[in-house]
Amino acid sequence: GRGRSAGGVRRTHVGEGALAVCRSHTPGGCRLLDRERGLASGRASGAPLPPEGAHVMTSPVANSGAAASASLAARLAAACGGERHERAATLAAELLGAGAPSDAPESAGVLDAAQQCRVVALIQQDKFQQALDALEGLEGAYVLERAYCLYRLGDNAKALAALGKAQGAAEDKLRAQVLYRLGRSAEALAALRQHVRAAAGQPDAAELATNALACAAAAAAEGAAAEGEAHAEGGAALLAGAGVEPRDSFELAYNAACCLLAAGALNRAEEMLGLALKVGRAALELQD
């Protein structure tokens, strides 16, 4: 769904080359692609997605343990493979309740995989509080999943604290989302910058560039940045670094216009807004 925030900056929710992307508007003026369905990549659009880097259930669970637990594990793996998330969460809870199927060292891995599957299945159903409850007592593990649930529940300060100093593309992209929500757009831009450059030629290049432009324009509006991406040339550099152009999407053109506006390039901003209108209308016509 689409909506407009007080400031007008547009962003898309963090998502996924070929993913389902849910758009929402946040303060600042630009459109940030805010992936309400997670940060995963390489999945077809449609079903909700867990964060990129989140653990997923794999077949080894179904290959070990005593007969009863092995049967549960096999059904769990099948449910996960078929994206039957409610069923998967139920089976994972049953397997965890049954305990380790044997004293073999690999039995602990069965329970670890079941825990992973349960958390991801709950996230897939947007049951973020239940996913957090499932992680109780597991501090230090599932950093990305924990932070993502807090983010989706609107507890941005705790989400940022949960991420801590965790490193990785998925962590940085989520960190940028959280920082943007907290009004710390210059820091959000810093978290995204290297990933924008690395995304050139990748399915999520346009989305990352859109988010970076949103952060740049918002940072300028906040007075947090007076140079670099906060001015027109910086916005153009972001697009070039990602290998995308304003005409590639409405969000890119709109956010590029916001960067030009922040730089005081009013005539160029007006031209870019005209392009955004043209691209947006064309996209809507394709949907009809």
From TrEMBL:
<dbReference type="Pfam" id="PF17004">
    <property type="entry name" value="SRP_TPR_like"/>
</dbReference>
<dbReference type="InterPro" id="IPR026270">
    <property type="entry name" value="SRP72"/>
</dbReference>
<dbReference type="GO" id="GO:0043022">
    <property type="term" value="F:ribosome binding"/>
</dbReference>
<dbReference type="GO" id="GO:0006614">
    <property type="term" value="P:SRP-dependent cotranslational protein targeting to membrane"/>
</dbReference>
<dbReference type="InterPro" id="IPR011990">
    <property type="entry name" value="TPR-like_helical_dom_sf"/>
</dbReference>
<dbReference type="GO" id="GO:0005786">
    <property type="term" value="C:signal recognition particle, endoplasmic reticulum targeting"/>
</dbReference>
<dbReference type="InterPro" id="IPR031545">
    <property type="entry name" value="SRP72_TPR-like"/>
</dbReference>
<protein>
    <recommendedName>
        <fullName>Signal recognition particle subunit SRP72</fullName>
    </recommendedName>
</protein>
<dbReference type="GO" id="GO:0008312">
    <property type="term" value="F:7S RNA binding"/>
</dbReference>
